[in-house]
Amino acid sequence: MKRNDFRIPVIHQLEQGLSPQSETKDYYFLDYGGDFLEQQSADGNGVVVYVCDTGIDVNHKDFEGVNFDFERSKSFVPNENEYIDQNFHGTFCTGIIVAQKNGVGVVGIAKNSEIIAHKVLSSGGFGSYTWITNSAKAILEDARIRTGKRFVINYSLGGGSGFAELERVFEELAALPNVIIVAAAGNSGRNTTDIDFPARYKSTIAVGAVDRNKNIASFSSAGLSGDVCGAGVQVLSTSLQNSYARASGTSFSTPQVTAIVAAVWSKFKQLSSKQIIDCLYKTVKDLGEEGLDRDYFLGVVETKAFFERAKALSEGEDEGGDKENIIKANIQLEVEGKYYEF
Ligand SMILES: [Ca+2]
Ligand SMILES: [Ca+2]
Prior knowledge:
The chain is α/β, with parallel strands linked by helices. Helices cover 29% and strands 17% of the residues. The protein contains nine helices and twelve strands. The strands form three sheets. Strands 4-5-3-7-8-9-10 form a seven-stranded parallel β-sheet, with helices on both faces. The chain has a three-stranded antiparallel β-sheet with strand order 2-12-11. One calcium ion binds next to loops.
């Protein structure tokens, strides 16, 4: 069995063993509407986030009080039966989503979302198509049964080629009104012909990385299959054994976008996955070349505008607006890109 079909994209500028002096709202929180979402009580409540990664160190002090679903958490990696993280990568991604406001460490963006750890990458950070596909099938079953829940799936991983069976399961997931898949564009830099799989699939929101000045990160993979960018340079989050780390990569802009989507969706659960994705795409900040481009894709996520658009759409429906027309009006798009086929 191949074990290296997918892997953690190469991490840049990793600084481990940090211990913030006081609780830190990092720029990925402050500059992307973290406080605004808190004011709106948009905290991920009722949204399930699957973190498909190296597992999670659920005992981290910054996760005390997190709504982990231990029952559904599991490892798909042979010979690594525990979903507890021994790498750091999955724990780091999880902190960006749900690190608690508790006076220590960092603060996540969707603190009340329900977290399920699916370990699909080994402690070494590698995974096979089979493990990830098996995990995706389990998520599909869960989402089909628990139709009242909203699900966001985080894939901070990638590889240079796809896998037909995984693509098929992703298409089934993305067709459900209660599932959104978010995946890392990859860290192969500016000269790639296109982004990594599974982010390249139409069924995902593919996420690239910008720095704190919203300039594209040198490592962020380029290509017209990308969708949005988030903060992924020198990000501070949770690491193993109650420590913290700073790291750069599309692995980390991905959970930021996952968390923003979970937070907004938790306030407007009546909206379908396609409506939420459409609101997200329609409200990005267009940077670089006008319109969709290989670097910034559609643009950088604008949390407040995304929230307001979702709010307006949901209120339009409450007033008895024609749902079909609202959806269609939002889907006649100007430029060619992978999501313009709704
Ligand atoms: Ca904290
Ligand atoms: Ca652009």
